[in-house]
Amino acid sequence: MTKSTNAAIYARISRDVTGEGLGVDRQLADCRKLAADRGWIVAEEYVDNDISAYKGKRRPSYERMLEDISAGQRDAVIVYNTDRLTRRPIELEEFVQICQSAGVEEFATVTADINLGNDDGMFMARILAAVAAKESGRKSERQKRKAREIAEAGKPNGGNLRPFGYERDQVTIVESEAVVLRVLAERYLAGESLMSLANWLQEEGVSSVAGMPWRTTTLRQTLTNPRIAGLRAHNGVVVAVAIWPAIITKATHEQLVAMFARKKVTGRRAPRRYLLSGLLRCGKCGNKLFSSSRKDTRRYVCMSGPDHRGCGRLTIVAAPVEEWLAEAVLMRLDSPAMADALVGRAIADERHAALAAELQSDQAQMKELAELWADKGISMAEWKAAREPIEARIFNLDRQIGQLTGTSTLAGIIGNGEAVRASWDSLNLSRQAAIIAAVLDYATITPKTSAGRVSVDPNRIIATWRL
Question: Which residues are in the Resolvase/invertase-type recombinase catalytic domain (predicted)?
């Protein structure tokens, strides 16, 4: 009795644009017909849809087929064409080795027969794999060149998922989503955390274009995407002005990118339980006050020790000083000085790009200096001497940019102190801290003048205002 041949059919398509798998279905139909003509039994069909065989990505069904061949469960392999099996010569050699070890010599294609059991068949298979690899390389280069041309023309790059803020054509603005993006940009620039903004979106019932809740990573990518500023980027670099209208200004985009970069470098975190984190100074030694709790009382404390380097001799209860400074900020929002701050807003936006460029240059110089020291090109003493003026410039630039950001993001709040006061308790802590930090640079807390005082003594608080 003749032993039946248990064949494996393998089908693959590298890019399924429609998502319907029609290319794979056509391959399978032709392979089934070939198996019927040979009198082979189709033991299993292995399908990898929308996966390239040129870039070396994992192909789960292909790997499972190899395991079944190695286990002696398959006697033959059928594919539509050799380039469906692989486009990499090294992968072909691995496939042949597995087939030879398992005693599988029957390898059939719809377009041509190849016998892997003899030298001529192997020679032909290697030639076809090499040709397929070269064609894939050419195709990849053509696609890259075309993508670059499209980008430099300011056109969208296609894709099945539309960008948030735009219709499926990627050009027409969805105004309801555009409003959300502008609010997000304004509130982030005012100092609100991504987590707070993501929670706000969920509370408002605003979903991403995929219908999923917003995550901080998705929010960061959306807010820093040049597309929403009407700019076309390619491989992370802006190459043209886009053909679609902008949702935010270029200046706002630059401010967002700069703020994300600063937070990444400095590791700043948004305040959680303490409204004035990072905004209070010790009146004895000038060091920052740190949040600390003792039993049920929240406090701001000047901490000593090598990590904090304060005098350790000043403490103030958190709640009263938070209430006093919050009220002072709300009163200041309605002051003539704040109204005057808006007059220079346009000038501030123009200055922002120049300051951001200076900051980037100094940061690059600091990195170059560190690399010189690591390569032993300069001594520790030389490194320290060169580092100090650069650090001072970075500190000053960072503060100037922060002040410009605060000015440009308070446009909807300045002059509306009473309205903000009425809704103050309904704002989350991150939003409250953002408003305060946009107005207040820092406040110095002086030592107590008398013991046992429960309420805060206003004379102990010396505010230094940004605006």
Answer: 6-154
CA 323 from centroid of its chain's CA atoms: 36
Residue 458: per-residue pLDDT:
87
Give the CA count within 13 Å in the CB-facing half-sphere of 418. 0
Beta pairing partners, 113: 108
Q: What parts of the chain have a pLDDT lower than 70?
A: 1-3, 14-22, 50-56, 112-122, 125, 129, 131-140, 143, 264-272, 306-307, 337-353, 398-415, 450-455
What is the pLDDT, as a whole number, of residue 408? 47
pTM (two decimals): 0.47
Domains, the chain: 6-150 (3.40.50.1390), 175-248 (3.90.1750.20), 280-465 (no CATH)
d(CA 244, CA 231): 8
What token pair was written down for 278?
């990072």
287/304 Cα distance (integer angstroms)? 10
Contacts of residue 351, defined as CB under 8 A and 6 or more positions apart, other chains included, come to 404
